[in-house]
Write the structure tokens for this entry.
Amino acid sequence: MRNTLIDAGPIIALFDRSDKYHLKAVRFLESYEGYLWTTWPVITEASHMLDFSIKAQSALLEWIDRGGLRIFELKEAHIGRIKQLTDKFSDVPMDLADASLVVVSELSGYNEIISIDSDFYIYRDVRNKYLTNIFK
């Protein structure tokens, strides 16, 4: 089964009908087959950006609860690597959510991401590899 990381942007777009990426996100996920992986920092960012609507936030949580997303559990031991990444890419800059996804990629070997951010064309993991953004 295919395993792909997902960033906050497409998640936000999925639950915000006014987002310019809404239709693209809906269509993409309708045809996607596999598991979508993310982290709590990404979910927190998405929920915060959906704070204009309790219904949208609730729909996000329901989607996760029904299995729409799998959550990779980061541990305290991963903080050092997250800090290394945010320091290394401070000129971009890399936020906590993005760094958490790069760490998941390093730990899991998942090399595809769904993101609206161009930053993932810059970020490299510990193997000096880029994530492949399949949300085109």
In short: Residues 73 and 87 are 22 Å apart (CA to CA).
